[in-house]
Specification:
Structural class: alpha/beta
CATH topology: Lambda Exonuclease, Chain A
Number of strands: 8
Distance between the termini: 10 Å
Order of helices and strands: EHHHEEEEEHEEH
CATH architecture: Alpha-Beta Complex
Largest sheet: 5 strands, mixed
Strand order of the largest sheet: 2-5-6-7-8
Low-confidence stretches: none
Strand content: 15-25%
Shape: globular
Oligomer: single chain
Number of helices: 5
Radius of gyration: 16 Å
Helix content: 40-55%
Mean pLDDT: 94
């Protein structure tokens, strides 16, 4: 069985047809650069100065992180589910100041996608079933280009969202291979 990545499965449900190729390429570049910088920041590592067009995203993350996070439990580790045959790489798991453990997926788009809750549910399962980390909640964290504090949207109905992911995974296997 070929192991499918969570984003490979869910990518079929995002319509990029109205986005010009160059803009889509730039968004991918932005996401990669911002994710790397935020991950390094969370781990207390060195972050090289970012180009001006990306610097606000990192400042946005730093604001949120400083105001909300007690400690970092995991950053960008690849996890595998042998039983369902999928893999994923959660952006980070943190313990908040209030003691809750939050699974975080960093996002740079301005508009929330319906797939985000489903993506986080798949990551939650990857952490929960082997009891790697006990997660209390998950959230997409939209970092802002102007440096304003990031917007966190929580998703707590992970079992229902995971059922949706399994449906997408099964459809992908049956129809795409």
């Amino acid at each position: 069985m070929r192991f499918l990545h969570v984003t490979e499965v869910l990518g079929k449900y995002i319509d990029f047809s109205r986005i010009p190729d160059l803009r889509l390429y730039e968004a991918c570049q932005r996401g990669q650069i911002v994710h790397a910088a935020c991950g390094a920041t969370a781990l207390g590592g060195y972050v090289a100065p970012l180009p001006d067009r990306f610097a606000g995203y990192l400042e946005s993350f730093k604001r949120w992180f400083t105001n909300n996070v007690r400690r970092v439990l995991m950053v960008e580790q690849t996890l595998v589910c042998e039983s369902f045959g999928f893999t994923g790489r959660p952006d980070m798991v943190v313990e908040l100041i209030n003691g809750l453990v939050l699974l975080v997926d960093l996002k740079t788009p301005l508009v929330e996608s319906k797939t985000w809750a489903v993506q986080l549910a798949a990551y939650w399962y990857l952490l929960d079933k082997p009891k790697i980390i006990n997660v209390d909640s998950s959230a997409s964290l939209r970092v802002r280009p102007n440096g304003a504090e990031a917007v966190a949207v929580r998703y707590d109905d992970w079992l229902a969202d995971f059922d949706i992911f399994l449906s997408a995974l099964n459809a992908h296997r049956a129809l795409i291979g």
